Amino acid sequence: MAITEVKVPDIGDFKDVPVIDILVKVGDTIKPEDALVTLESDKATMDVPSPIAGTVKEIKVKLGDNVGEGSVILTVEAENTAAAPAAPAKPAKTAPATTPAPVTAAAPSKPATPTPAGSYSGKVDIETDMLVLGAGPGGYSAAFRAADLGMKTAIIERYATLGGVCLNVGCIPSKALLHVAEVMDEAEHLKAAGITFTAPKVDIEALRVHKSKIVGKLATGLTGMAKARKVEVIRGFGSFIDANHIEVETTSGDGQDKTGEKKVVRFQQCIIAAGSQAMHLPFLELNDPRIVDSTGALELKQVPKKMLVIGGGIIGLEMATVYSTLGTRVDVVEMMDGLMQGPDRDLVKAWERQNAHRFDNIMLKTKTVSAEAKKDGIWVKFEGEKAPAEAQRYDLVLQAAGRTPNGNKIGADKAGVAVTERGFINVDSQMRTNVSHIFAIGDIVGQPMLAHKAVHEGHVAAEAAVGQKSYFDAKIIPSVAYTHPEVAWVGVGEDEAKQAGRKIEVAKFPWAASGRAIANGAEYGFTKLVFDAETHRIIGGSIVGPSAGDMIGEICLAVEMGADAVDIGKTIHPHPTLGETIGLAAEVAHGSCTDLPPMRKK
Ligand SMILES: Cc1cc2nc3c(=O)[nH]c(=O)nc-3n(C[C@H](O)[C@H](O)[C@H](O)COP(=O)(O)OP(=O)(O)OC[C@H]3O[C@@H](n4cnc5c(N)ncnc54)[C@H](O)[C@@H]3O)c2cc1C
User: Which residue among 162, 171, 262, 460 is best mutated to probe the pocket of ligand 1, counting the most ligand atoms within 8 A of its Cβ?
Assistant: First the structure.
């Protein structure tokens, strides 16, 4: 059989591009179109496909070699020499396509094959390589990454500012208020150290301004960063017309008032980042100002005397913390058998002990069944284990019973993008939907609905869109309740592992033995690490106590790096810090902790 040389085909303007991956080895049997090597220019990565079937005889390039059109990559003993083509095949360019991209089934690592544009043939106002729908943390991060990687990028956002739920009505305003509440709580605790302050006076208007200033500062920063990257921001409500066009009904003002004007944007690739919105109970309409969701609660229109929080999850408990510190008495109703589903129960118990003073009633295994707005308040009826017999009166009712994705509101079907009944969009590990040039990220693709997950996914999608071999392969995603104290957890929990019958080793360091925790009045806290009993590698961890959220990142890194207790325990942590409790918990795991009474020999 004849030996055929496979050469780099015409790759456009690119000369001397490095080989960044060799995808076959001598002896491999290959088929036409099998990727042989990956080349990377400053604009794109591209796989060079095989023009023939046969067996790889010799590889003529090595990693890092610079090649251009005509460079010999390898030799192949062809299966059938008659089938060998006269000209080498075109490489599969995975960077921004110059023709509209395809509507094919999702194929994570395969580049898009150009196909004709969608069905729309009308006027087009804006053309772009990458179009991002929604400017939340996922959307703007994806857009900025795409622009940094060389794509002409535009982003559609219905509101006046970038940042989405997280910046405008979520993570940031809630943390601004939680910080104020924490300082107020801490000032009160200083009584025990002989320091007393006069009772705080709350100027609610000034507090609102303080919160808005923080949000405004960050929003201005985002606008500047979009400008610096030449990311075009299109203000309006976007809806797909087909798989390559989105129609934008432009909006103006502070809200989403439509101007009546429409624009059509044609895109090569798109990232859907349209997020989620608060779920509302059918009998709790928001037309009464005393019934709010988290957005309404963050507006801080009043400090009510008595408040009901529906839903004992993170968002509900964070808002309960703020309002209770400002002077509100709080009831919580939760259908499940415990508050804060997610972390191990021992952390929640420690949290509950510190927070018991905030609540009049915690109604577990109970649901809200009706509400009646009367002059003197909202009268709410409950059913379940802890339901009071009579309707209860509240000055404010917060619905924090979860969030629902916006997948069914963007005309996704017109682009052929599949959306589940609940409004989620399924994606593969490169964040591609079933339409391979349309990606989706953030809350709209599923739980956990967290900003840091959205940002990470946004980067993966943008990198995959330019042809990089980027995948969402994070082992873990941390969660934090920014309450007082904070609760942070990541990876496999002790409760979950025990329920699943998984063999684990658990090491706990009580903060009662931490000098810093005692000095800070936080000796109730603890740090817990979970190790796999066979490999001894860390698989999870959790912390309850002040700054738990700032410390959990170290445990995340340890899990991602496959660290064991010795790696963590022998890493010198600064003393005296709350962070050193992670190192100390690892020492507990391998039996070398000298900050606790002698451990029993195993
Ligand atoms: C009160 C509260 C506190 C939170 N605190 C935290 C926290 O501390 N840490 C954390 O990690 N997460 C927190 N979250 C969750 C976090 O806000 C979300 O996970 C995150 O914002 C999701 O980002 P995203 O980019 O997917 O979508 P979103 O932030 O929801 O952004 C989507 C954007 O798309 C826009 N959009 C939607 N449809 C269209 C359309 N058709 N046309 C144009 N624009 C459109 C929306 O206006 C929005 O700006 C909190 C959420 C809430 C409500």
Answer: 171
Superfamily of domain 126-277+405-465: FAD/NAD(P)-binding domain (3.50.50.60)
| pTM for this prediction | 0.82
pLDDT tier, 513 (very low <50, low <70, confident <90, very high otherwise)? very high
Which CA distances in Å does 475 have to 190, 471, 472, 548, 557? 41, 12, 9, 20, 10
Mean pLDDT of the chain: 91
Question: What are the domain boundaries of the chain?
Answer: 3-91, 126-277+405-465, 282-401, 485-590
Residue closest via CA to ligand 1's atom 37 equals 274
Contact between 439 and 272 under an 8 Å Cβ cutoff? The reply is yes
Give residues with Cβ within 8 angstroms of 326, minimum separation 6: 181, 202, 303
Among residues 92, 98, 2, the alpha carbon closest in space to that of 49 is found at: 92
Question: What are the helix (H) ranges across 264-337?
Answer: 294-299, 314-326
Distance (Å, rounded) from C-alpha 490 to C-alpha 558?
Answer: 11
Locate the ligand 1 atom nearest the alpha carbon of residue 165 and give its number.
29
For residue 451, report the distance from its CA to the centre of ligand 1, in Å. 7
What is the structure's pLDDT at 14?
65
Q: What is the pLDDT of residue 82?
A: 41
pLDDT-wise least confident of 85-89, 470-474, 558-562, 591-595: 85-89
Q: What would be the CATH architecture of the domain defined by 485-590?
A: 2-Layer Sandwich (3.30)
pLDDT the model gives residue 8: 86
> What CATH code is assigned to 282-401?
3.50.50.60
Over pLDDT 70: what percentage of the chain?
A: 91
Class of domain 3-91: mainly beta
* CA–centroid distance, residue 557 to ligand 1 (Å): 25
Fold match between domain 126-277+405-465 and domain 282-401? yes
The answer to whether the beta carbons of residues 87 and 8 sit under 8 Å apart is no
Given strand 377-384, what is the order of strands in its sheet? 366-374, 377-384, 392-394
pLDDT at res. 64: 81
d(Cα 513, Cα 92) in Å, to the nearest integer?
A: 60
The residue contributing the CA closest to ligand 1 atom 8 is 171
Q: Quote the ligand 1 centre to 582 CA distance (angstroms).
A: 31
